[in-house]
Amino acid sequence: MTQMPDSRPISREQLAPEVKSIYTELTMVETKCIHVDQAQATVVHDPKTDSNSKLVSDHWQALIAFHRTLLHKHHDFFLASQHPSASLALRRLASKYSMPARMWKHGIHSFLELLRRRLPESLDYMLAFIYLAYQMMALLYKIVPAFEDTWIKCLGDLRRYQMAIEDEDIRNRETWARVARSWYSKAANKNPPIGRPYHYLAILARPNALQ
């Protein structure tokens, strides 16, 4: 069961060391994810690498597990630092350390790009990871509204990735495209001066977007 931010009583004095502990664990996992992503990216781009070489299932599962753990650590950090009992200083930590951007970059995007470059071998793993990441972002969208703009962007991007790799069922592609458009439209409505959502809406509106 998902724990809501205000689901248990905790004092400010208790929150500070808890947030510090979570952040320490998070940075350790983040460093590991950065390392493994860079190592795999180097292999992919190495001209000496056999283009037919494939990662075994256990290796893919291990990579997914690293990134799943990082997403869970971010979830715990956001719940603790944005807790109703948190001081203003604690609440500001997520912005101070660029936690939403780091979650997307190191927890999701770098790994998605690695998976994308390994297609079609990685298709099933990529779909599974997109589903996992989407669930996490949808949860944060509901329970950590302070960073709603970031969650909306990430949710749109995840559905756009899913649309792009859906080859078997045009109806599924249309569904993912429609969901992506809804998130980008929401982002555009919330922040009209920002051009990025309009860019992706234009891409999704092209006649060949689903081909």
Automatic annotation (TrEMBL):
It comes from the Eukaryota. GO terms for biological process: nuclear-transcribed mRNA catabolic process, nonsense-mediated decay. GO terms for cellular component: telomerase holoenzyme complex. GO terms for molecular function: telomerase RNA binding; telomeric DNA binding. SUPFAM superfamilies: TPR-like (SSF48452). PANTHER family: SMG-7 SUPPRESSOR WITH MORPHOLOGICAL EFFECT ON GENITALIA PROTEIN 7, TELOMERASE-BINDING PROTEIN EST1A. This is DNA/RNA-binding domain-containing protein.
